[in-house]
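User: I'm putting together notes for a lab meeting next week and I want to include a structural view of one of the chains we've been expressing. I don't have a solved structure, so I'd like a prediction I can at least talk through. The sequence is below, exactly as it appears in our construct file.
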Amino acid sequence: MAKTAPSTSASSPLPALYGRSQKLFTQIEKHLGAKLVTYWTSPTGSVCQNDVIALHEVLAHVGKVERLYYFIKSDGGNGRASLRMVNLLRQHAKEVIALVPLNCESAATMLALGANEIQMGPLAFLSPVDTAITHDLSPIDRDNDRVSVSQNELARILRLWREDAGRTPTRNPYETIFQYVHPLVIGAVDRASSLSSRLCGEILSYHMKDRAKITKIAEVLNNDYPSHGYPIMIAEAQRIGLKAKPMDAELNRLLIELSEVYSESGQRHRTDFDEKNHHDDEICNIHEVAGAHVHYRVDKDWRYISEERRWVSMNDKGAWSKLAGAPGKAKTSVLHIR
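Assistant: Thanks for the context. Below is the predicted structure for the 338-residue chain, given as structure tokens.
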């Protein structure tokens, strides 16, 4: 048996870049005339329950304010975490303004739904929030991984089946579907879809009172799009009932520059030992306010198990860290989240 490759960890550029991001915070908050909170994830990061604790940590440096601006850049993740994060933001500010200069998808769109107003730049887009799940009984793909299944996909199979039923003899569609998708998976997908609609409704209710409008927006975002990744730009966001407005050019420029700083600090470092062993090191989730910064850093080995045709992680040293204080004098500590 091959020996496990030794763990290696690239040096993060974050402490030096913290000074750059904090300088941009000064400029952005001066431009806004209010406090700013940022939330950024890399393509391999995602909205997760641990983000709730991380957000709570940085919001402690903000206190309670009348208006709070919330920068969001993320591909999405856990919608239940989004609800909890919106609840936290609402405890610190009477009015929340979401700032979206880039992608704000899926569970990140749910975060934006919790804002009184969504300001979007030229590159910005939201997305549908329909839920796809990977169940323990989900089908297996060619790489021996469980595939995700969505309510929309199952509904489309049934719709196509019904449309063909009038032209060709057919039997109960579920007899065929159950050969590929376990009944418990179908039940779990339906439950997840109901959860997604409920989450949207709860989040919108933080600042909207019209239940009919809330229900309409939730249904559109969960059921009306042919792709989970469909980009919802500002005009369409307005059409479905969201209070979306164009972001002013200078603010958009500053936020794009801030995102570039985060992208640089979150550069992925992969060390390949051989074709079956490598090490990953990157910062993938970032929360920041003026004077404080919290991030999650991936630091683990990966090994390919040929017999099982899958990758497994080993020697996981990933952890949340906090920087607090002025640049050059900031103290770094481990943020213990269990």
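A couple of points you could mention at the meeting. The chain has a mean pLDDT of 84. Residues 164 and 184 are 26 Å apart (CA to CA).

User: Perfect, that's what I needed.
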